[in-house]
Structures are given as C-alpha cells and as structure tokens.
Amino acid sequence: MNLLKFFTAGSVDDGKSTLIGRLLYDTGSILADQLEALQQSNRKNDDGTIDLAILTDGLRAEREQGITIDVAYKYFQTEKRKFIIADTPGHIQYTRNMVTGASTAKLAIILIDARNGVVEQTIRHSYLVSLLGIEHVVVAINKMDMVDYSETVFNAITDKYTLLAAELDLKEVTFIPVSALKGDNIVHESQNMVWYDGRSLLHFLETVDVDDKLSYNLARMPVQWVVRPQTDELHDYRGYAGRVLSGSFKVNDKVTVLPSGNSSVIDRIEIFDLRPEEVHAGQSVTLHLKDNIDISRGDVLVNADHLPQNAKLIEADVCWMDSRPLDESITYLLQHNSKVTKAKISEIIYKVDINTLEKQNATDFKLNDIGRILIKTADELAFDLYTENKANGAAILIDSRTNLTVAALMFRAVADY
Amino acid sequence: MSKYNLDYLDELEAEAIHILREVAGQFEKPALLFSGGKDSITLVRLAEKAFRPGKFPFPLVHIDTGHNFEETINYRDKMVERLGEKLIVGHVQESIDQGKVVEQTGKNASRNSLQTVTLLDTIAKHGFDACIGGARRDEEKARAKERIFSVRDEFGQWDPKRQRPELWNIYNGKIHKGENVRVFPISNWTELDVWNYIKRENIDLPSIYFAHRRDVITRNGQLMAASPFLNMDADDIVENKMVRFRTVGDMSCTAAVESEADQIEDIIREISASKISERGARLDDKVSEAAMEDRKKGGYF
C-alpha cells in the first residue's frame, strides 16, 4: 500500500472543512469519542446535523473565529491507499500557510462554490498550485445541491477553468461535481447527478497514478551525517548517511561530490542491516565510496554524468512568509536541504498580483507577496531547476536576527549576468 | 519509463530517519525523550536505523513520575543495556522535594502535569537544545497543527501563532540561546502505523501492552489500574479483569481497555475495528476541549 499526500485549497465558505469532514466521516475515520465530543459542541448546521467543519479546527483561536489559520494534518486510509491531508487556510492573509501545506503534496483539491464559479480566490489558489508544481489537480465544484445539481452550471465552470488551467500550464486537471454537505460524489457516487459519469472524489484519490518515475540521471543525495563508529573492529568504517532526494543509486555507480567536484564509485549501500544493490528517491540510506575523499554534512552526492547546476547567482520564485519585509541590505541564511549558506537578495525582478496574475515592478516585498528575485549566495549551490527536479530545486531563507523562516524559494534559472 | 513507489511504512520510516539525522546534524546537544511507551520505543528503533553501527548522537532522557508501571521500568533498563547508550533520568519526586511543584490531592490526583517542571529543569540542567519526542499528529487536534521542528521559548512554551512555516523536507533548527526545539519524527504516523511497524520490525514491547489479568477500578467510565498511587476510597470497587493498555503514561492517568489481545496480530485487528481513539483513554486530555493545546503552551511534551 502506498501513501498519497494532498492538500485542499478553498475557504470555509466554499465548504472546505465540511469536505474534509465528509471524507473522514464517510470513510469511517472518525471514532466514537471524537464524534461524542463533536455532538457536545455547540456548533451545528442549520438543520441540527453535526457541523463536520469543526473536525479540522485544532486551535482555540480557530474555533473561536470559525476559520482555519494554520495547516492541520489529517490521516485516513481505505483498503487501497493511505492518505495525509494538509488542510490549509484559503484566505489571502494565510497564503504562506497554504504554500507550506502544498510544498509536500502531490495532489491539490481546489474547491469552487458552484454558485460563484471561478472567482479571484480560485485564480490565486490555482496560481499557487502551478507555482509549486503540484502534479495532479482536482477541481471539486461544491454546493451542487444549491444549484439544483445543474449540469449546465457545472459545464460553464469547467469551461472557464480549463482556460485558466491552460494559462497556468496545469497539466492534469480533473473536475468533479460534489456536495460536501449532502455527501454527493465525495465517497459515494451521487444519485442526484446521473449526467456525471466520472468517479467520486475518494475513488479518484484511491486510483490516481502517483508513482515516481525511475530516473538514474537525477541521482542526488545530500549528506546529512557521516557515520564513523571509530571502534577497533570498525576502524575504517565511513558511511555517508542521507535521504535520496531524487533518482536512484546503484553499487558501482560513479558519483561526484559537490561542491568539491571529487569523484568516486559506490562501494556498497546500507539501510541498517540490509545491503541493497540499488536505492531510490525517498529512501534513507548510507552510502560507502571506494575512495577516501573529504565529505561532510551539506555536501551532495550526484550522478557523475548528470551534474546539477552549480552556481552562486540564481533567479528564484519567492513567497515571502514573514511580517518583516524583504530587506536587500541584510544577509540572510539560505538552507537548501542540509546545506546552509549566506545569501543576499540582489534584485527584486517582479512581484505578481496573485489575484490577477499581473507581473508588476516592485520596490518592496511583504508578507504573502510572491514574485521573482535574484539571489546571490556565499557558497556555490548544487541545485536543479524546480521545474526539472522539485526535490533539489527548492530552499528556504532564514532571517538570522530572528531565526524565523522568512521565505520559500523555487529555483528557476542560473543568472547569466 | 518504469515506475516505482515505496510502501507506506518504508516511506514513513525513511522520513523519520531523515528527521533524526537532521537533528544530529543541526544541534549541539540533542536528547531523545524516552517514556517507555510504544512510540518512544519506535523512535529508538528508528535511531538505530539512522546511526548504527555508530553510537547515537544523543542520550535517552526519561522523565520519571515515580508512578510508573513496573514493567515499563524493567523494559527501559533492559533496553538501555542492550543498546549500550546513555540514559538520563529526571525525577518528578525531586521536583516535589525541592518544593518546585506540589503534589495534587483528591481522588483524581495525578503527577502527569507535574512532569512539565521536571522536564524543563532536566532540559536546562543538561543544556539540551533539541528534544526528540514520539508525539503524533493523529493523537489530538492541537498536535495536528504542530510542526515537526517545534520551537519552544526559554520557558518551554509552544506558541501556535508563531510557528515557523515548514516547507518541503527542509527543517529550520536555528534557535536563540535558551530556546530549544521539540522534534517529532513520527508526526505523520498513525497509531495503526506504529503497530504495523512494531510487527514488521519484530520489536519487543513492555508486557502491559498485551492482555493480562489485573486489579482495576472503574472511574469516570474508565478502567484504572489499582495501585498505591491511585487515591481510592470506599466507593471504589476493585475487580480483576483481562485488560491491556493502549498508551503508557503515569499509572494514575492511563486507563486500560478490556481486551483478550495477547498477540500483536490481535492488537492490530482490535485497533482496526476500534471505535475509540487512543487518547480517549487518557484522562489528562479530557479536562477541556483545548486541554492539550494549553499543556503544550505550558511546556508539555
């Protein structure tokens, strides 16, 4: 059985929390004591049924205000798959939280209120999905019960969204008409929309192909830790421990260590007591090399015939996440996987109005702003472009005055000036 | 082009090992908080996978309420001996003797909440900058919102409104002096995942997780182990029942469930069919809707 992480984009008004609540409730993932706590709660729907939305509100402030502020993670499983839901807030002032929840997701559910169709928020959420390179998009057109389960309404919205998807270069988009409140097409197929011959949302989530493609070319493993027991019997043991970010490594593969550029050959691979001949993206492993070369935390082992970019001046898309605005005069820390280096922002190239997708010149960059910057690092970074290899194409910025994570970076180009 | 996917347990394991190695790489003085429960036992197994044949880059730290199940302490000592790793114990009794905390009185008295002071003192005494814990997001709704690297201020407090964004698999462990980070490598595991992993890895557990006969009393609808640590009165009727524990905490706050499951396969079957969540058997969570959020803000695990 495999695992699918997805996130939901929408606001409480679109029925996002109700949709998640419905998925959990109809798959039997809510247990009796949790249900009892729900029933005792004061929040009920107008018709007296349980308000499924409160299942996802974890913090006191969220229950008080009836909104989602922070990402909440929810877990459920069916016979076919295990799921992790990142329930992310939809309001523009919590854009950073949505980016956070989306960063580890393979699939996005974008909620549209059937009564309102494609609105400003839909454009913003879809832009973020495109920016973060989420592979699969489900557009759940919700509240179909409020528009008499009308096929015409559904078709009008899908036509409009298809144009948006093309503009944003979203590849795999699936439309599902649902009513989270009534349960239509969430877990069970709806009897109210016989004109829709597609699958229910859950059925789609269970069957969508999210396997990784094998690609030896993209073999990348940042070294997190060097295992050196230094005991008498393991005197020469020197294992490079890390998680394979992307691609695969095999015994006898030629690898290059960056930034030094030294090369060697994989002597053996260990996963605790196993000695696999090859390992793939996602696995935490220990590699041994034939030659004794200087390697420490922050270095990255890569396929010697397919090197990543190696540069200090990089164009990146950025989502600003801190209440202190971007400051071109100070030095930040840039963390790219296990590597930390100093960095300065040399230029704000543009800012995007995420409601209209317009690119604008900007002199300032504040909380939740998104755009492109030119960044200069103290050390060379061994990275891939985000579009080619997400796992090695992203980084965070840390403000060393506060130690807060202030920005998400997606590398887009090596600057040629 | 051929494709592959990792089994979910392999993926969860690889993520947890990655997190443990980030702790080792980013912090000067980390520690692994070991309670003797199945989640921290799982963490120990993951630490072996992350660092063997080397030593652990951190000691194990146990906050001992003094109200333990004897089986847990025996298990702990045997395990530490097998591992050959360092164990540090912080005693709640010491905090009581020093007058830093006052023992609760009354029928529902428990040392559970007193642990926070001992934990914070132990962290301060040894200068730990990162404490690895076995909390999971599926346990409780405040935990569902907590980061994997969760920064605490110098009073140990969690501030849910000031959490750092946690992006991709990049963990920011930068802190100021006096602050520390609680790290939760199995955040994304569910109770069932832990049990399936224990089964797959053939991990030995304290015997109280399996069905056994025990003297219990029923209190607030929950089965509590009869022990000198429980304030009992004439209303309490002691019964001998076949029970097991789903979580292991202080004897005075952990309830048992009636069960015949004495094999791990039976437990997995029982949990899969269960209609009550794991923390449903924790009296400490029942105080209010925000009980866990409030305790975390106060420095709890």
Automatic annotation (TrEMBL), chain A:
Residues 1-213 form the Tr-type G domain. NCBIfam families: CysN, small_GTP. PROSITE patterns: G_TR_1, G_TR_2. InterPro entries: CysN_GTP-bd, CysN_II, CysN_NoDQ_III, G_TR_CS, GTP-eEF1A_C, P-loop_NTPase, Small_GTP-bd, SO4_adenylTrfase_lsu. Its EC number is 2.7.7.4. CDD domains: CysN_ATPS, CysN_NodQ_II, CysN_NoDQ_III. This is sulfate adenylyltransferase. The keyword Protein biosynthesis does not apply. Pfam families: GTP-eEF1A_C, GTP_EFTU. Keywords: ATP-binding, GTP-binding, Nucleotide-binding, Nucleotidyltransferase, Transferase. It is an enzyme of class 2 (transferase). It comes from Pedobacter gandavensis.
Automatic annotation (TrEMBL), chain B:
The keyword Protein biosynthesis does not apply. Gene3D superfamilies: HUPs. It comes from Pedobacter gandavensis. Residues 30-255 form the Phosphoadenosine phosphosulphate reductase domain. SUPFAM superfamilies: Adenine nucleotide alpha hydrolases-like (SSF52402). Belongs to the PAPS reductase family. CysD subfamily. Keywords: ATP-binding, Nucleotide-binding, Nucleotidyltransferase, Transferase. GO terms for molecular function: sulfate adenylyltransferase (ATP) activity. It comes from the Bacteria. Pfam families: PAPS_reduct (PF01507). Its EC number is 2.7.7.4. This is Sulfate adenylyltransferase subunit 2. It is an enzyme of class 2 (transferase).
